[in-house]
Write the structure tokens for this entry.
Amino acid sequence: MRRVVLTGGVATGKSYVLEQFAALGVPTADADQLAHTTYAPNGPAWRAVRERFGPGIFDERGLVDRRALGSLVFADETARSALNAIVHPHVRIAITTWFANLDPDPTVPFGIVAIPLFYETPRTEVYHRVIVTACRDEAQLARVMARGLSEHEATQRIAAQLSTTEKVQKADYAIWTDDTHAETARRVSEIFRTLGKELADPQETGDS
């Protein structure tokens, strides 16, 4: 199975795009969900997160208050780097295991994992294609604020990642999500067909 990454800035449509690929029969995984699992109670990063950030970001059940953690790390680059250093190694292991356990399928020769910080963090793993979701800056800001964040908080989260322009330039494919869901789904189907042809032929497979 070939390895494909779906990345993109916060609130640029990754979840919807990943759902559309899944609906087409593509095996999919989400690094954010895997990260949440690592610092859930009994998760491999739970103790280290608690030791680094203190019990104040945990509720009475031992669950991380993700809103409180987000407010902390997006306001402090050192704290954000510390969290990434704790969590990301476990997430990379989980992703590698997930790909290794996929059953080969000649009709869909690739799996897709959504990794929001793919371009922002060091990596040694090989990926054969990268897809980026993108939207206009003003649309992205509005979407982040619609999640209940202030403009300042939303701007912090956007600024913590590479710009959409940089990600689009680096990626193999871009899916712009400013238009309707139907148009986004049409673009997903188009890339699905293209990847199916490209990645079925080993000679056409480049590494990212």
In short: Residues 75 and 156 are 7 Å apart (CA to CA).
